[in-house]
Amino acid sequence: MATENANLTFRFACKEDCGAIHGILQRLAESLGLVARLQTTPQDLESFGFGPNPHFKVLFAEIEGNTVGMCLFFPYYSTWIGRPGLYIQDLFVDEQYRGERIGERLLRHVARIGREGGCTHMRLTVDDGNEGAVKFYQRHGFILSTDESMFKLVGAEFDNFCDLGDCRGLG
């Protein structure tokens, strides 16, 4: 049975934490065998998370001042549900602390933050082959969406798409 660490605290990340956030993202990428896919830098995190128009928030889980987990998330709006929600981009707990319900507590804390802001749901994706994450989310009531597929447009393909065609009238 999982234990709960009584010394666990939560705090929002600040600009000075960008190196730590990046380090956690590197550990996540290593654990998934996806190091080559991680392109973000601490400078990117600072610019896009802690600048004048932040695109995400990060909640840390800490034990005695040491960061042991992280959840990076941001709000979005669902036209189908008609309500705002939260998108969980990354959830990570250091391997030595898994089984102590830290991931669950991080996720619940983020969900409550969202609910206080009017959110009614959460969405996330799981990397193919990450069976541990699939089981974790299913254990906590998340359901696998089988009625939609995720598509992406990245890098040069994104730029090419933006540059094609006429967009007059957009100001």
Q: What would the keywords be for this entry?
A:
171 residues; 32% helix; five-stranded mixed beta sheet; 23% strand; 5 helices; alpha+beta; 5 strands; Aminopeptidase
CATH superfamily: Gcn5-related N-acetyltransferase (GNAT)
Identify the CATH class. Answer: Alpha Beta
Look at the helices and sheets and give the structural class: alpha+beta
Mean pLDDT score, rounded? 93
Q: Would you write up a description of this structure?
A:
The chain is globular. β4, α3 and β5 form a beta-alpha-beta unit. It has a single domain, classed as Gcn5-related N-acetyltransferase (GNAT) (Aminopeptidase), CATH 3.40.630. The protein has 171 residues and is of the alpha+beta class. The model has no long low-confidence stretch (mean pLDDT 93).
